[in-house]
Amino acid sequence: MRRLIPILILLFILIFVGSRILKKKPVQQAVRKTQEVVEGSKRARKAGRRVGSLEKREKKSREERRKERELRKLERKRLKEERRRQRELQKLQREGRKKARRKRTKGMYILQAIITVENTPYALIDGKQYKVGDEIMGRRIVKIESDKITLDYLGEITTVRVGENCVPLTTLRSKKRR
Fold first, then answer.
1. Which of 26, 100, 128, 171 lies 20 to 30 Å from 14 when distance is taken between CA atoms?
2. Residue ranges of region Disordered (predicted)?
3. What are phi and psi of 129, to 5 degrees?
4. pTM for the whole thing?
5. Angle, to 10 degrees, between the axis of helix 29-39 and the axis of helix 42-54?
6. What confidence tens digit (pLDDT) does each residue in 135-178 have?
7. CA distance 140 to 154
């Protein structure tokens, strides 16, 4: 009997302490909802049923779901194509602005006009008058006609019409690099 009483007291203490430790602590409302949803408790299931009952869902057939999927896919394609067209249009507009700038004509040796003063023809190149025998970048004017001039460069004869360059662009570019 003497041994039984301490064992009973010890057993009573263990049960009391164990129930205190294992007892659930009060939880805040927001935390409780998430826990219930995760655990799938009875309260959460009922709440879900209430929400679903407000707006009854109709079961859709496989064919209807497939059609809806295809419609969404087509809509995404259409939006993607529209965005692509807008990007291309903006790109073209930017390029158009660049082309709108006037190109440099001064210093490019462009034959602007051919004029005749007292029966002597002159070639107007970059605002300067040249006559037969004058040189432009090493090219000698051999003949001036009504719409073109003939140039001689190291024995090679070329004709240049009004609006064209008297000196090839490759020559001008190499000159700039030096």
1. 26
2. 33-103
3. -90, 135
4. 0.39
5. 90
6. 998 899 999 998 999 999 998 999 999 988 888 766 655 554 44
7. 9
